[in-house]
């Protein structure tokens, strides 16, 4: 199949499966216009992926920046601003106004925003109104820049955790209108930009869904794609996707994307904090994505192309299982419960002459040589579970690396989920690499806690 046909099939897949339909955009627009009508202060604007038209479906949240009046701005320094009274007043006003027009919503004043929830489920649509103060600076497009609570830079789920913990949020300079204009202009030059961004965001969504601690941020990946298009202005959709995976590792070496509002800071500053284990996982997922792209390019039937595109997006090895997939159906719920696991290392069958005594993984930096045995166990069990609920513990082993083939030439990446203990008990250390074992505490249809332990196996 030619590259042109493959590219057209990628475009079709993205349009059908990832891009929000016009009806979804219309709902966002209607809810936004409805909010404007209810606010006396009209100095608001959309922010985030909806504003940049880089959202993936379903669209379930909208960020709205509410610029505080000049009176407030002059009276209060943002670093000393106590928003509680302002946000409570706004929330009460909006709750009353929505009731007056017959719209059922739940309006909540939060530490640094007001949340408007249009349904009971987190998957249903919500609006977060984040206050802002104008700075005395404008961007190169002539738009104002702002000081906003740092909450604006966190995902919807992360905000919920912060609100629950009432964590104090600092204020930060931001240029949301500048990022919107930057994406718009780059897309105007090549209308494949937003398509590739959506594809990568969907891949990232699956990575995060499969591995809750997956560290890469959506906005960060969006800006990487934008940079790739600026450096390669004539690429098509498929070429943009391939260049993203080919270059992603380089973008993770050190922070390299200056913040528009403060060139001394980087929006990807957090990459310095990614530990070697999580970084190794990212590299594995990048390699897997490249492998899936090769499979797509080798496809000679349209249906096979779509199947392989789907495999690329879901970011998992063949036959790998996840706690939230259709076979298990447990939903991750953060209840703040603690679960800890460890592994007891002992001499294996092939190392009888080894004089090293038994030890525990976490006491030895998780390093083990080939030929050992590891018995994994729960070192700290969860508590605070309702008495009528029975907790079950599930285990998963995942081998990583290129050299994980057995004597029959079969790749043993594993990834199965088993009850009570790992599939092989104890496990044998057979392949070099940084592998991991996970344990999940589940009850009802929820996974309420989990822990992961890395196992670095080498010849030593």
Could you name the key traits of this structure?
12 helices, Poly(a)-polymerase, middle domain, 3 domains, Beta Polymerase, domain 2, 7-stranded mixed beta sheet, alpha+beta, 460 residues, 19 strands
Ordered list of secondary-structure elements with their pairings:
Elements (H helix, E strand, L loop, with lengths): L2 H15 L4 H17 L5 E4 H5 L8 E7 L2 H6 L8 H17 L5 E4 L4 E4 L8 E13 L5 E6 L6 H10 L5 E4 L1 H14 L3 H18 L7 H14 L5 H15 L6 E2 L2 E5 L9 H23 L3 H13 L16 E2 L7 E8 L11 E2 L6 E3 L2 E9 L11 E7 L15 E6 L7 E2 L4 E11 L2 E13 L2
Helix pairs in contact: 1-12, 8-9, 8-10, 9-10, 10-11, 11-12
Explain what the structure shows:
The structure is a single chain. This protein is an alpha+beta fold. It folds into three domains: 1-21 and 190-316, Orthogonal Bundle (Poly(a)-polymerase, middle domain), CATH 1.10.1410; 39-173, Beta Polymerase, domain 2 (2-Layer Sandwich), CATH 3.30.460; 331-458, Immunoglobulin-like (Sandwich). 36% of the residues lie in helices and 24% in strands. The chain is built from twelve helices and 19 strands. The strands form four sheets. Strands 1, 2, 3, 4, 5, 6 and 7 form a seven-stranded mixed beta sheet that branches. Strands 10, 13, 15, 16, 18 and 19 form a six-stranded mixed beta sheet that branches. A hairpin with an 8-residue loop joins strand 4 and strand 5. Helix 10 (237-251) runs antiparallel to helix 11 (276-298) and helix 11 runs antiparallel to helix 12 (302-314).
